[in-house]
Amino acid sequence: MRILRSVHGLLGLATIALVAGCHKEVEDVPLLSRTISISDRFYDVQALDAEKAIVVGYSGKILLTTDGGFTWTQPASGTNRALYRVRFVDPENGWISGQEGLILHTTDGGKTWQRQKSGTSVYLFSLSFIDRKRGWAVGDKSILLQTTDGGANWSLHKITTAAQKEVSAEEAIASADPVLYDVQFLDENTGWVVGEFGKIYHTTDGGQTWNEQQLSLIGAEVVDALDLPTFFGVHFADARNGLASGLDGKIARTNDAGTSWRFEKMKLDYPIVDPLYNPALFPDGTGWATGAAGEVVHLDAAGGEWQRAKLGMEVITWLRGMHWLDRDNGWIVGGLGLILHTKDGGKTWIPSLG
């Protein structure tokens, strides 16, 4: 594995005291403690304002910055399980989902976190809230959780759909209980879920019923439903325009609320063979996506083809999480303790060293 070429070593300090003709031994001063290390693996990030952001990751680690990433504190999570997704609906109220059905909740902007009873032990890879009360979470074994009281109680469902066509026994086995990797709701009725085997699910009644939308991707590039790429992330800028990203560097786009999807074109000096995990789409058409092996791709508002973004450094760890506060302020997090922040729309990226 190639590594990020930046300084990760700890600084050692020592003082020498000289007193009136007498020599004192060098005093031992403790090494400076660091909140970020090369062993950290970060899965997600959310910016709450231009200076404040929350990062979550492996071993229950939560980081909080209030100065744009120059310094970080580590609020207690009360767990050593992996934390996969963080979502806030306002500056004070947020949730985290993770391993073994873990859901955490804060009401003070991330300073303290309390565990909620999800009623499941499956991995919960993503969640989405539209206000302080109503939210959804998705994970392994096609599990969908829903709350109407801010997570005090969660109801357990499985996403099932009416058959859109007769499928072979092979297809039925392959697509049974697919893992659900991401969810986004725009309002109390309208939402999307993406996951294993290229599944793209859409609801217009708050998750009571679902329709599959991925079959529109079958065509010149993919001729068999079994060859559709697993999708790890979904993001809609509005009720009609959205992206899904996944295996083999694929990005799918819709401009009609998912009635039809198409694979996006990319202008690359060499192809992306690794997964793209996390897409972002702005109302003006600007797009971003992050993935494995340090891949970051970008689409200008003017349209055209996706191109690799320049980060200003060599990064070949996986980049799992990304969040944009607005067109200028964005964050990317990933393996090897990597946290990147931009304040100029991605023209320059600054690493946080902790």
Written overview of the protein:
The protein is mostly beta strands and 354 residues long. It has a single domain (35-351), classed as Methylamine Dehydrogenase, Chain H (7 Propeller), CATH 2.130.10.10. The protein has one helix at 169-174, and strands spanning 14-15, 18-19, 22-23, 27-28, 42-47, 53-57, 62-65, 83-88, 94-98, 103-106, 114-116, 124-129, 135-139, 143-147, 155-158, 180-185, 191-195, 200-203, 211-212, 231-236, 242-246, 251-254, 262-263, 276-281, 287-291, 296-299, 307-308, 319-324, 330-334, 339-342, 350-351. The strands form nine sheets. It has a four-stranded antiparallel β-sheet with strand order 8-9-10-11, with no helix packed on it. It starts with 13 loop residues before the first strand and ends with a strand.
Q: How would you summarize the topology of this molecule?
A:
Elements: E1 14-15, E2 18-19, E3 22-23, E4 27-28, E5 42-47, E6 53-57, E7 62-65, E8 83-88, E9 94-98, E10 103-106, E11 114-116, E12 124-129, E13 135-139, E14 143-147, E15 155-158, H1 169-174, E16 180-185, E17 191-195, E18 200-203, E19 211-212, E20 231-236, E21 242-246, E22 251-254, E23 262-263, E24 276-281, E25 287-291, E26 296-299, E27 307-308, E28 319-324, E29 330-334, E30 339-342, E31 350-351
Antiparallel strand pairs: 1-4, 2-3, 5-6, 6-7, 8-9, 9-10, 10-11, 12-13, 13-14, 14-15, 16-17, 17-18, 18-19, 20-21, 21-22, 22-23, 24-25, 25-26, 26-27, 28-29, 29-30, 30-31
